[in-house]
Design goal:
heterodimer, A: 168 residues, alpha+beta, three-stranded antiparallel beta sheet, elongated, B: 145 residues, mainly beta, 13 strands
């Protein structure tokens, strides 16, 4: 298990521990840098703060990003400040782990939604802003981060889930 | 306003057939417009009852009715609400009756005759995968540009 020093504190971190620390959390909006964990994009500082309990003012984005890439997570830079798309982990990891994938192609909305089948999502264009188990969680996230979505819906599990006789 | 048909991923791979949808925002929930399937066969506009409290819509004393949707018996609760559609540049708002249903089997709402289609001129181009929505001339509609 790698040992790293952040803001004068030593931590023993591994991939599984990081993934577990993010369970039940929702990624905040991506401004520039992100890391891919559990198939979703996360701001590096949010991840390191959750894992270590440190205040975000105690370390930089680059320190957080470097810590995550040392653990083998993919890190990249969003194409624009508005790029907040969650990405399938498989798509990113196929081009090499812990690599900077700044030039990976932008997925379509269908591809971006694939990791979130069964979840409620808020989308804007081809971007998935947030995915969560309930519409309450999605709306709370939008309010917390002052974001406005184009649409909110649950990604259906099957064709059968979106067919059926219309009501009168 | 033009709305492109929306394709969704299929759990088995590939994608589900793109469908005509409009994103309708409830008053009080403008940050999260609800994806609604355009349903020319539906007399009413319906969506999940879970969404009403998110917009501050009270359903306690609402008129209710029971019916089946997609083979599921459900209870609809009626509320007259202000709705908004926008393509990001133009925005139209109108008052309409919406039935909030519990349980609700669909992952989206249904935009039907009452509540939506009666207020708009809708042109569907399934071949090109879009629908155009324009306010019905003479209808009670507020527009912001």
């Amino acid at each position: 298990m790698p040992t790293m020093t952040v803001s004068g504190h030593r931590y023993r971190l591994d991939r599984r521990g990081v993934e577990a620390a993010l369970a039940g959390e929702l990624p905040e909006p991506i401004h520039e840098h992100f890391v891919v964990i559990n198939g979703r994009r996360w701001p590096p500082k949010q991840v390191l703060a959750l894992v270590t309990g440190l205040d975000r003012a105690d370390f930089t984005t680059h320190q957080a990003r470097r810590a995550m890439t040392r653990l083998g997570f993919t890190a990249a830079r969003a194409r624009s400040s508005r790029a907040q798309r969650a990405r399938p982990a498989a798509e990113l990891s196929s081009s090499g782990s812990a690599a900077d994938n700044s030039d990976v192609r932008q997925p379509t909305l269908v591809e971006a939604l694939r990791p979130f089948i069964g979840l409620w999502v808020a989308v804007r264009g081809d971007e998935v802003l947030v995915a969560a188990p309930s519409p309450q969680d999605v709306v709370a996230w939008l309010a917390r981060h002052d974001q406005r979505a184009q649409a909110m819906f649950r990604v259906p599990e099957s064709e059968q889930a979106i067919t059926g006789a219309a009501p009168q | 306003m033009r709305f492109l048909f929306r394709a969704l991923p299929a759990a088995s791979g590939g994608e589900l057939t793109p469908r005509p949808v409009v994103d309708i925002a409830l008053e009080g929930l403008l940050a999260a417009p609800i994806e609604c399937l355009l349903d020319t066969g539906a007399l009413r506009t319906r969506m999940s009852a879970d969404l009403a409290p998110l917009a501050g819509i009270e359903l306690d004393d609402s008129l209710t009715e029971e019916f089946f949707v997609a083979g599921v018996r459900t209870t609809g609760m009626l509320a007259r609400v202000n709705l908004t559609v926008t393509d990001g540049t133009v925005e139209h708002s109108w008052d309409a009756p919406v039935w909030f249903c519990d349980p609700w089997p669909h992952p989206f709402g249904l935009a039907g005759l009452e509540g939506f289609l009666q207020h708009f001129l809708v042109t569907v181009s399934a071949y090109n995968g879009y629908l155009d929505v324009e306010p019905q001339p003479g209808g009670a509609m507020a527009a912001n540009m």
